[in-house]
Amino acid sequence: MIKNTFFYAMLFLASFAFVGCSDDPEDTTPQPAATSSNTIVDIAGGEDFTTLAAALERAGLIETLQGEGPFTVFAPTNAAFDALLAELEIEGLDQVSNAQLTEILLNHVVSGKVLSTDLTAGYVNTLATGAQDTKISVLVDLTDGVKLNNRATVTTPNIDADNGVVHVINNVLTVPSIVDAALANANFSILVEALTDSRLASADFVNTLNGDGPFTVFAPTNAAFQNLLDSNDDWNSLADIPAATLEAVLKYHVVVGDNVTSGEIVDGLTPTTFEGSTFTINTTNGVVITDKGGNESTVQIADVQTSNGVIHAINRVLLPLE
User: Fold this and answer.
1) Given CB 3.0 to 4.6 Å as the disulfide criterion, which of 65, 175, 183, 225 pairs with 190?
2) Contact indicator for 192, 205 with CB cutoff of 8 Å
3) What does pTM read for this prediction?
4) How would you label 252-280 residue by residue, b for 16+ Cβ within 10 Å and e otherwise?
């Protein structure tokens, strides 16, 4: 009887020891694998992007860029931000308002995952907000690599992230005004020359179109201006066009006080221009503008959105003349 009692007692202790062995350091029970994060924010936390990371945190964009996305981010390096400070003649980003900093940063973000091989020449909209809650346009030039707004070059493309892709750039993309957008596009070089003609100093087109706006500009391309020069045997350059005529023509391409996107243009629209008279827009076959003389111009590129207005590129100069 005593032997049996002793036997059962030992059996009980042995079973207790067996149950407790799951706490043993040598337990081989499989554990879940550790997961690593590689979001856009993680990439922006690298040593070459400490200024960008600090700016994102200050602007409250960390959570956004850790989200599902996908996003395409053109990421300026520390050196790019240093160049911006020199350009703005300030000592630090703390001298830039939170609102302005936020829009600058959002101007580097495109919705969707866009690899460098998926980019096409032309305009792409960023997440920055322009006049009347529209999205800012950035010009993509693929002539020699990838260049943005004739300002920043992609130096390292296609850094893959869990929620998108990062392209490293060598300059910060400030939010462009009407004037900035015209300067960035080589197809508007004659328009820029006209706007800055010293004979028109009293009109001060540059300061006007850098103002608050909003403005809608129907911008003739270089080819459109060349056609205008070719229409008069006495005109070999802009300098041959009388200053008063050139000023009136330029004003005739600007609508003040409204950011008229292509989606807002209805057939038969007759906006009043900065020059004081109107033209007629028809939408039966594309967007066609008929000036006071009955000449027609077609919108070739619509909705180039800036901070203070929108540009529509047209293929013929509009004339405010009967």
Assistant:
1) 225
2) no
3) 0.87
4) bbbbbebbbbeeebeeebebebbbebbbb
Query: How far apart are alpha carbons 186 and 314 in whole angstroms?
Result: 14
Query: Tokens in use for 95?
Result: 């001298």
Coil, helix or strand for 3?
helix
What is the CATH class of 178-314?
Answer: mainly beta
Read off the tokens for 152: 């920043």
Topology agreement, domain 40-169 and domain 178-314: yes
Cβ contact 290:296 at 8 Å: yes
Encode pLDDT of 265-311 as tens digits.
999 999 999 999 999 999 999 999 999 999 999 999 999 999 999 99
CATH topology of domain 40-169: FAS1 domain (2.30.180)
Q: Which helix (H) or strand (E) holds 209?
A: helix 205-209
7, pLDDT greater than 70: no
Closest CA to 168 of 187, 145, 190, 185: 145
